[in-house]
């Protein structure tokens, strides 16, 4: 599972007793280890809290565009059905696009809707790895976006321990 999307939510909470409740939501030891490392880094970095809070509200988004085609059509080159700038994932027969713009979650949803897409809903580990590869650093421009990804997961307002996919 991609951990960075959880970090943005965690930054909104205080580091004291609420942190203990958040730990219960982390499902495996790898996620817990990543969370501990993240907390150490943020605790040691007490520069400008207001700037950090604003930055934590902003992120890039990955869009997922369902591939629409006639069932009779052959698909000799899967990438030919993705628009320019999109990456094809054969496992879900979908196109993904990484947008290099710092936005909050709702802005990410709006940008996706304008593209005729939705925030990525990662259905299995292989698709998660594919999406994670899209977020890798390719240029020095990408450095500001390390770990900053919005996907289509959203907390259930009635029980914040549960998440659901918004694009399905």
UniProtKB/TrEMBL annotation:
UniProt superkingdom: Eukaryota
Region (Disordered): 35-82
PROSITE patterns: C_TYPE_LECTIN_2 (PS50041)
Coiled coil: none
Record-annotated C-type lectin domain positions: 91-168
Annotated InterPro entries: C-type_lectin-like, C-type_lectin-like/link_sf, C-type_lectin/snaclec_domain, CTDL_fold
CDD domains, per the entry: CLECT
SUPFAM superfamilies assigned: C-type lectin-like (SSF56436)
Basic and acidic residues biased stretches: 55-72
Protein name, UniProt field: C-type lectin domain-containing protein
Organism name: Diploscapter pachys
């Amino acid at each position: 599972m991609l951990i960075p999307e959880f970090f943005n939510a965690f930054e909104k909470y205080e580091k004291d007793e609420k942190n203990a409740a958040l730990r219960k939501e982390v499902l495996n030891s790898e996620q817990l280890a990543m969370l501990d490392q993240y907390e150490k880094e943020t605790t040691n970095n007490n520069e400008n809290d207001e700037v950090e809070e604003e930055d934590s509200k902003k992120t890039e988004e990955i869009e997922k565009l369902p591939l629409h085609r006639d069932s009779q059509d052959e698909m000799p080159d899967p990438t030919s059905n993705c628009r320019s700038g999109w990456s094809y994932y054969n496992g879900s027969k979908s196109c993904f696009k990484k947008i290099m713009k710092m936005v909050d979650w709702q802005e990410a949803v709006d940008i996706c809707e304008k593209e005729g897409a939705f925030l990525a809903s990662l259905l299995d580990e292989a698709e998660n790895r594919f999406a994670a590869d899209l977020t890798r650093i390719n240029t020095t421009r990408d450095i500001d976006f390390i770990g900053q990804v919005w996907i289509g997961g959203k907390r259930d307002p009635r029980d914040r321990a549960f998440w659901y996919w918004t694009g399905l």
